[in-house]
Design goal:
This protein has a single domain (3-178), classed as Up-down Bundle (Four Helix Bundle (Hemerythrin (Met), subunit A)). The chain has seven helices and two strands. It starts with a helix and ends with a helix. Strands 1-2 form a two-stranded antiparallel ribbon. It is globular, with a radius of gyration of 19 Å. The chain has helices at 3-34, 45-67, 71-92, 100-109, 116-130, 138-160, 164-178; strands spanning 38-40, 95-97. Helix 2 (45-67) packs antiparallel against helix 3 (71-92), helix 2 packs antiparallel against helix 6 and helix 3 packs across helix 4. The protein is mainly alpha-helical.
Length: 181
């Protein structure tokens, strides 16, 4: 088989693999929607505000834990600081998600925002919270917190610039995604 044909076949396999992953993800969203774990809700400025406050509290606590060398716990609260800010975004957009994976995935799919750092932070949280065979340094946690603060600042800015028109567009994207046939 010549090289060009091999490249075409490899490309086709990659495309098919991506399509399969996409279909699995769509089915996951549809399943969560049927379970009412992912749905549209009425606007709630109060819930958005509560999640913003939670996010800030988590970050303050993460820094206190870091200062006191409670590194595993600092990692967890750093992640939750970001996650709670995501929840504020979702409630501002009148979308409710009760699933961490769906929330981080929809950050990219609906809002077009990079979700890679939140996914990394979630993995770090799970590793530090549930397993014992890892090594973590104070410097690692300092870097995690700094990057999380940057993420939170950018996301807070994004939330503050949301207009009713943008919210409607994001909700429409969400509806189109979960009504995929």
């Amino acid at each position: 088989m010549n090289k060009e044909l091999k490249n075409i076949l490899n490309s086709k396999e990659k495309i098919e693999e991506m399509e399969l992953r996409y279909m699995k993800e769509i089915n996951f969203f549809i399943k969560l929607t049927k379970e009412k774990k992912l749905r549209l809700v009425e606007p709630s400025e109060e819930l958005k505000k509560s999640y913003l406050e939670k996010s800030e509290s988590n970050m303050v606590s993460a820094k206190i834990l870091l200062k006191n060398s409670r590194l595993e716990e600092a990692v967890s609260l750093t992640y939750y600081s970001m996650y709670n800010l995501l929840m504020a975004l979702f409630f501002k957009s009148r979308i409710k998600s009760e699933n961490h994976l769906a929330t981080t995935s929809l950050l990219e799919k609906i809002f077009g925002l990079d979700n890679s750092f939140v996914i990394f932070a979630k993995k770090e949280r799970v590793d530090k919270q549930y397993y014992v065979d890892f090594k973590i340094t104070k410097k690692d946690v300092e870097i995690l917190i700094q990057k999380a603060e940057d993420f939170n600042l950018n996301l807070f800015d994004f939330i503050s610039k949301l207009t009713n028109e943008k919210i409607k567009n994001y909700r429409d994207k969400f509806i189109n995604l979960i009504n995929f046939n």
